[in-house]
Write a structure and sequence with these properties.
This protein is mainly α. It is 64% helix and 2% strand. The protein is globular and about 55 Å long.
């Protein structure tokens, strides 16, 4: 038996104990946040079933707490938690199909969020395969979902993220992409135009941050004319001195 198969067997053996521990953790979280014992028990049961399938339970607890804080009826909270559990299961399968046999919970949660934004399972796989490490897959999926939220088509959003991941761009730079898209739309571009512009040439990963290019002026720089600097000064641009 090779090492990977042995690891899988051990995980399967430990899964019931892990599921029970996660159920207890969810129950404790919900009671601590003030949810009724009846609702807590129902959500914890959904979490236990999800944990037995290898699905992360943290997002389920968060969804229940969110609904409770907004005074959503219990029946609707349970429906939302159950729907999220199913989507997390689909997301886990999509990530596994892309090559991550035991995907981290944060990657599964990010994939579920992306799927909730209309990104398909095949597109989830594109992002996961483009990521050089599992740690890069989760932010990549989150950025794709955020770009869709900014109005980009899912195909464009995924293509932009895949391009950035394959180029090995820093995660912090990739996380700027939704704000870049927002700034470009603030200049009058449509979401479709933003997507096309981001996919053009070398890709959006080389774009400056909002306020440092793209015609967006930082708030701490006053407007005014600029004139060429004397070539003997090294070229470039500078502002003329103010008149006394």
């Amino acid at each position: 038996m090779n090492a990977s198969r042995m690891t899988a067997v051990v995980l399967l053996a430990l899964l019931p104990a892990l599921a029970a521990a996660q159920e207890a953790d969810v129950r404790a979280q919900l009671l601590a946040r003030g949810l009724s014992p009846e609702l807590t028990g129902q959500v914890a049961a959904i979490a236990a079933e999800a944990a037995a399938r290898g699905v992360p339970t943290g997002p389920l607890a968060d969804k229940a707490i969110e609904g409770w804080s907004k005074h959503v009826p219990d029946a609707r909270i349970l429906g939302a938690v159950q729907a999220l559990s199913a989507r997390l299961g689909d997301a886990r399968e999509a990530v596994r199909a892309a090559g991550l046999a035991s995907p981290p919970g944060e990657v599964v949660a990010a994939a579920a969020e992306a799927m909730g934004r209309g990104i398909g399972q095949a597109q989830i796989g594109e992002v996961v395969r483009a990521a050089r490490t599992p740690a890069a897959a989760a932010p990549g999926l989150n950025v794709a979902a955020a770009l869709v939220a900014e109005g980009l088509a899912s195909e464009q959003a995924v293509a932009v993220v895949v391009d950035a991941l394959r180029a090995g761009r820093p995660i912090a730079q990739m996380l700027d992409l939704p704000s870049v898209a927002r700034a470009m739309q603030a200049q009058g571009m449509t979401p479709a135009d933003v997507g096309r512009e981001m996919m053009r040439g070398d890709g959006p990963h080389q774009r400056p941050r909002p306020g440092r290019g793209m015609g967006v002026r930082p708030p701490d720089v006053p407007p005014g004319p600029v004139r060429p600097r004397n070539p003997r000064d090294g070229g470039g641009m500078h502002r003329p001195p103010r008149r006394p």
